Amino acid sequence: MIQRIQSVYLFLIVILAGLTIGLPVASLINVKSNLLYVIDIRGISLIQPTGAAVFQSATSMLTTFAAVFGTISLITIFSYKNRVKQIRLSVLNFLFMIGYYVALIIYIWIACSSLAAEWHLRFAAVLPIISMIFNYLAIGAIGKDEKLVKSLDRIR
Questions:
Q1: pTM (2 decimals)?
Q2: Does domain 5-155 correspond to CATH entry 1.10.760?
Q3: Sign of CA dihedral 139, 9, 108, 59
Q4: Lowest-confidence pick of 48-52, 75-79, 118-122
């Protein structure tokens, strides 16, 4: 199960989903009042000059999407006996990764308009794109395995 390359790709997606949940995704800076807001797992928080974070609003959809695409990847790893199901789960996972970015854009757009702030993406915003690449590679590897098994069935 783990010796297959698609399992490695899917496990990397699980790790990247965990990092996406744990790290701040974007910063919002109000230039006029010099306030810094951060979008992370807790939501949109105002960072005080003392370093304390004051909670402003929730971003539960971002956390949900990241948790779901990590969980689906983990489920996909352990359904190695049914490769067609693996491909379907990986395609569904790809849709959740796209949904993550749609939710991120909506949260940033609403927050920037209400807080009159400029947005800056952080490193964690790139991790779902890397996960999409690994997901694409996993789909290709699962497809190769399926072709190999069908060709061996034909020989018998």
A1: 0.87
A2: no
A3: positive
A4: 48-52
